[in-house]
Amino acid sequence: MTTTERAAGHTAIVRQKPLMTMRQILLMNLGFFGIQYSFGMQQTAVNPIYNFLGASPEDLPLLNLAGPVTGLLIQPLIGALSDRTWSPRWGRRKPFFLIGAIGCSVCLFLFPFVAAVWTAVLLLWILDASNNTAMEPYRAFIADKLPPQQLAKGFLAQSFFTGFGITLANISLFVFQSWISGATEAGIPYWVVGSFMLGAVCSIGSVLVSILTTPEIPPTESELKALRAKKGGALKEILDAIVEMPPELRKLAVVYLFQWYAMVCYWQFVSLSIAESVYGVTAEDPEYADAVSWTGLVNGWYNIVTFCVAFPLVALARRHGAKWVHILCLLCAAVGLVLFANLTNRYLLFLPIIGLGIAWASIMGVPYIMAVRMIPSSRYGVYMGIINMMIVVPMLIQTVTFGWIFEHLLDADPTNAIVFAGVLLAIAAATMTWIKEPPIVRDVDDVLTMPAGAH
Amino acid sequence: MTANVMVVVERQFDYPRPDVFRAWTAPEEMARWRGSPGWHVESETVTSELRLGGRHHHVKVRDNDPTTRVTTDAVFTEYFDPDVFVARQRITGDPGIDPDVPLELRVEFTRTGRDGTLVRIVQGPYEPEVAGFHAKGWELELERLQTYLSGRAAP
After folding, report:
1. Which has the higher per-residue pLDDT, A140 or A186?
2. CB A126 within 8 A of CB A337
3. Is B43's pLDDT higher than 90?
4. Which of A88, A108, A68, A119 is closest to A207 using CA atoms?
5. Confidence band (pLDDT; 50, 70, 90) for A181?
6. Which domains does chain A have, with CATH numbers?
7. CA separation (Å) from A307 to A184, A231, A300, B9, B69?
8. Which domains occur in chain B, in start order?
9. What is the mean pLDDT of residues A357-365?
10. Contact at CB, B139 and A453, closer than 8 angstroms
11. pLDDT above 90: percentage of residues in chain A
12. Spatial separation of the C-alpha atoms in residues A232 and A219, rounded to whole Å
């Protein structure tokens, strides 16, 4: 194709975006709460189910491979497909997160009734595929709906619901344990069943509220024509998007490499680190169960911090820019994790982990504020999928490499793994300075209250 | 009726960012393509101080009726060559725009691919019933920008 032909092929994308009230933004994002509750259950309750069904601990990483692999394969595909979708009745992104939410609900409903490891593995793959199908177009949905001046609010509302959903998933497990007794024939306690049932209701219920209260913006006739004239499969679309990726977005991949590698290190080693530094035990000792239980509280606390700080971060991002807010948040987590690994008092652990809660709020929202300003809106879906690949690839790299690093460089000491995660987050903050953020977009409230500047 | 609609229009151009940014900002260039079909910018009316806080002025005139004139006065509230400029505008002479309610025009230039530029225009807030008209106007103006850039690039 010649340059002239390509130029003629570029279609102007026109959107009229009504400014949304805070209530509308929260309703639009409510579905993210259900999806994140589902993720919370996947993170917290699926491994105990494997254990109840008699899976060996050394098989757990393999049994959990569903997460990164489905994320890698499904999200870009769903993104590319949703970019090409328009139905006057169903919209562009909604069909995908409705199908995803239905899948999540069905899987969460069935999960506690599995009787063998292989059925649990199969359900986890379907659950993860459904989570990915729902989550990816949800980010693109926010970018579709909001004008640049309100994107910070939109994405940090997603951070808020991320923290809220995961916290509630963990709290439900904690509370139901003391309320509900008994177990299924397969040995799965009814309190676990209760949490899964609540998750099944939250997942579909919250997504339905968002779908019914938030209409999508229809494409213009010329955009629709261009959409229908598109040739080539979704795979080609993904490859084209990678080739044509804006340079600043490529740099974000480097930040993500360190940031997500660090997060996986934290999640994998935090309970072992607490066991060693606070309880002076290892995974082989019976007291390890206390460390695991305390880890649940620590993780629950940092997710509470996440939803508490999400909206204050909006104000910071609009004043200082998303880039510097994210750098600051990553540094909070870096300092926090280094301190965390060296504490011996279990109550003091709740202080430095605040840093990770702040960073987690930023990680789930702030980079997207920058990213959507670098990409064409007709390709939000595919690029959100590619950004997810930037998350999943470091996770896979960590799976392959960290065993060696842990053994040979970190003295097989879990507290060193947490310090290592802190150092990686500091490096992520340093690489973030390399990104040239598009200049700050003022929030629309500031624009409307500014005095007129021209005469 | 409340002005609460932001118009967002974007299009990719296969020309480097500095070229596209200059076409938008340099008075002698912008006068050659700005304006919807049936309108043109009077080149002698264009003044622009291309810096933060700089003032901008231009008048658009209907081709077949020079008495129909729309005047734009603006101040650059952001100016980063070739990334973005933001102008606080007061537009008079357009029956669909209240001259007492300032508008914000934000134009972003993002590098895309090897040497392309994604232009994203964000303007508003408009009242809902006139937003579509102005969105269409921008779409047509970007077509003129494409014609101008390809004409300029031709040997």
Report:
1. A140
2. no
3. yes
4. A108
5. confident
6. 17-225 (1.20.1250.20), 241-442 (1.20.1250.20)
7. 34, 42, 11, 33, 52
8. 5-153 (3.30.530.20)
9. 95
10. no
11. 45
12. 21
